[in-house]
Design goal:
331 residues; alpha/beta; 12 helices; globular; NAD(P)-bd_dom_sf
């Protein structure tokens, strides 16, 4: 049975979402965007985007490729990955004369982010052959029934938290070699209803709720972003909420929500806008590292009176637990 605090958090969050996270919320915020922020030439800059075969990841990849950036699409499904590459190139090709894009600037890498060994091995191979300026942690998983991977890890946690942690940690050395390095993590406003629970990272206690597990993972990502910002001053870290967007992931994982809200959901491009802005705009890195963004503005990571703040000791325990798990699977 939900506690009164949980009911309060969810009610406040949903009302906030209706006003801010919908297509209308984006359109209202976009009136204040600076168009010139995205008028950039990204030639010579290398971007990695996880979960780039669909939804927000694919929309972000297209916009970066359109501006001349070299894009590394990290995807789990080979067919969808190649389709994403083809779509990015076929649309970008129409602007070839202006943007000097060539298909060699879009690369596909296959990786299951729920497999920590694969993530380590991929990151190590990548650094041997490529440079990297910007990492966009976009891959996400929302499994509604508790599922355990072959490594014995709860799948949402393995993908959203541990996979993101290992990939980012492993790529920090190559990022530090680049000019203006950035890490953007696509989190979710759903994390606002969750307080960090470091005592049950893999949801082994009590009934399993996939939506709340996902929200807990997204809270973890925001906390990690804040900690990385303090530990690696050479890199600009940020996390962001894309709003409620009409993506394949939302349609498959939250069909009831999608059916009720489909006419008010953002497009994939609208959902991707802030991730793109954080990745390419010069103005984005004028703000302090470690902040959480919504529609190109840094916003609070907590709802009013929601009692979701964690202690420094709890956040240290989270990072320590992830470091220990990560080392267990390191080749």
């Amino acid at each position: 049975m939900k506690s009164k605090m949980s009911i309060y958090r969810n009610a406040v969050w949903f009302m906030k979402g209706l006003q801010e996270y919908t297509k209308g919320g984006y359109e209202a915020a976009a009136k204040h965007f600076v168009a010139a922020d995205l008028e950039v030439n990204l030639s010579g800059r290398d971007f990695m985007i996880t979960g780039a075969n669909s939804g927000i990841g694919k929309a972000t990849a297209f916009e970066i490729a359109k501006r001349g950036g070299t894009v590394h699409l990290v995807c789990r499904n080979k067919d969808r990955a190649e389709a994403a590459k083809g779509k990015s190139w076929s649309r970008a090709k129409m602007r070839l004369c202006l943007l000097l894009i060539c298909p060699q600037n879009v690369h596909v890498h296959l990786l299951d982010m729920s497999s920590p060994r694969q993530v380590w091995e991929f990151a190590q191979r990548f650094q041997e052959n490529h440079s990297l300026h910007v990492l966009i942690n976009n891959a996400g998983c929302m499994v509604n029934q508790r599922e355990v991977t072959e490594d014995g890890l709860e799948k949402n946690f393995a993908t959203n938290t541990l996979g993101t942690f290992i990939l980012t940690t492993a790529l920090i050395p190559v990022l530090k070699k680049s000019q203006d390095p950035r890490v953007i993590t696509v989190s979710s406003g759903g994390m606002l209803v969750q307080k960090l629970n470091v005592d049950d990272l893999q949801f082994e206690k009590g009934p399993f709720d996939g939506t709340m597990a996902y929200a807990q993972n997204k809270r973890q990502q925001v906390i990690l972003t804040e900690r990385w910002a303090g530990q690696h001053k050479e890199i600009h870290f940020s996390s962001m909420h894309p709003g409620w967007a009409d993506t394949p992931a939302v349609r498959s994982a939250m069909p009831d929500f999608h059916q009720k809200m489909k006419n008010r959901l953002r497009t994939e491009a609208q959902g991707a806008d802030t991730a793109l802005w954080l990745a390419v705009a010069a103005s984005a890195v004028k703000n302090p590292s470690g902040l959480f963004y919504q529609d190109r503005k840094a916003v609070s990571t907590h709802l009013p009176l929601a009692a979701t703040r964690s202690t420094p000791a709890e956040e240290e325990r989270l990072q320590s637990a992830l470091e220990q798990l990560a080392q267990r699977f390191k080749p």
